Structure formats: structure tokens, C-alpha cells
Amino acid sequence: MKHLVVYSSPGGNTKKLAEELFRQLPDEKDIKPVEGAPDPAGYDVICVGFWFKGGQPDAAGQKYLKKCSGKKVFLFATHGAATESDLVQLGMNKATELAGGKNVIGAFSCQGEVPANVLENAANKDPQPPWLKDAPAAKGHPNGNDFMALSEALIKAGLTTKASPVSGQIIEESPVMLG
Ligand SMILES: Cc1cc2nc3c(=O)[nH]c(=O)nc-3n(C[C@H](O)[C@H](O)[C@H](O)COP(=O)(O)O)c2cc1C
């Protein structure tokens, strides 16, 4: 199985998720930013990462999702809105549709920290965007808990078989006492 991870991430949150996803995947894998990403045709599974803008996948993410129709696709995303919100559900539905629907084998999304200047701009808008009220809780995300949840989503999608420790952490087994 050849895996490709493609991500759109001007601010770096989705890139963090992409790198962790890449680390957890089994061998035969490539990772590329969406700018200049290869054609999906040469791969069996494409993991496409995007960020939310205007309640939808960002424009570069949308463009690449459309190229993946007919391929096995795993979606991942970051957003300011709360993960369990209708806003996120709608955006993920849109991404599924763009990627071709039935060929989407799984999805994962979590909040991604929104920079202070973006929060300030959004707060000055009238009306304020609906995701703004959730955005303070996005601080520090994606984090280790998000990576664990990502691990579960990858198992559910059949892309990995066991939970793998979060990046940077070494989980040691207790020594076996003999005799
Ligand atoms: C211009 C702009 C528009 C945004 N619009 C939304 C939105 O509609 N819904 C949402 O949940 N988050 C929105 N966000 C928050 C980002 O989706 C979130 O911070 C994300 O993690 C950014 O990803 P990145 O760091 O990979 O670029 C917006 C952020 C920016 C800068």
C-alpha cells in the first residue's frame, strides 16, 4: 500500500497533524504540502489535510480534494470551531463530497490554535463569524490528546493496526522480573 499525505497549512496547525499522521502510517509513504503535491494516481491511499475557512475546506485543500475522486481518501483538518459542532460537521461533509463520497475511508479533525490577530479581526466583524466563540478553546491545539484521537481514527479506517505512542514520547514496558 502506497500512502500519500498532502496538507494545506499556512499557519502550521494542519502541518503538525499531517506530520503525526505520516509518522503513524506504515511504510511506503510520502508527505507533501499541497503546493506542488504529486498526482494522486500513483498512490493507493491519499490522506488530505486542510484548514477551515468560511466554514469550508480552504481553497487549496478543496482543489486537491477534487483530484482524489475515485481514490481511497482519509480526510483530516483543523478548525477554530468546536470539534463536535454542526459547523465542523458541515465542513467535513463538504470535504467528503469534494473527494468523491463513498471512497472516503475515514476522517479526523480537531481544533487548531487561532492567532491573536486573526481573533481580533474576527471579533471586529459584524456579524462575528460563528466559530469565534469556540476559538479560545483552540489554544494549544493540536496537542498530544488530539494525536491519540487521530491514532484511533486511523485504526478505525484500517490504515494502522495498533495505537502508536504520540510523537516524542517513549512508552517503556515494565521490566519483567524473573525468578
Ligand atoms: C482567515 C481565516 C478564516 C478562518 N475561518 C474559519 C472558519 O470558517 N471556521 C473555523 O472553524 N475556523 C476558521 N479559522 C481558524 C483556522 O481554521 C484554524 O486556526 C486552523 O487550525 C488553521 O490551520 P493552519 O494553522 O494549518 O493554517 C479561520 C482562520 C483564518 C486565519
Can you offer a commentary on this structure?
Strand 3 and strand 4 form a beta hairpin. The chain has one domain (3-156): Rossmann fold (3-Layer(aba) Sandwich), CATH 3.40.50. Helix 1 packs across helix 5. Strands 1, 2, 3, 4, 5 and 6 form a six-stranded mixed β-sheet that branches. It has helices at 13-24, 59-67, 86-98, 116-123, 144-156, and strands at residues 3-7, 29-33, 45-53, 56-57, 72-79, 104-111. It is of the alpha/beta class. It has five helices and six strands; from the N terminus they run E-H-E-E-E-H-E-H-E-H-H. Flavin mononucleotide binds at residues 9-15, 51-55, 78-81, 87, 112, 114, 118, 129, 131.
Order of helices and strands: EHEEEHEHEHH
CATH-derived topology:
Rossmann fold
* Major sheet characteristics: 6 strands, mixed
Please tally the helical runs, counting DSSP H or I stretches of 4 or more residues.
5
Class by helix and strand content? alpha/beta
* Overall tally of domains: 1
End-to-end distance: 44 Å
For CATH, the homologous superfamily is named as Flavodoxin domain
Low-confidence stretches: none
Q: Average the pLDDT over all residues and give the rounded result.
A: 93
Note the overall shape: globular
Total count of strands: 6
Q: How big a fraction of the residues is strand?
A: 15-25%
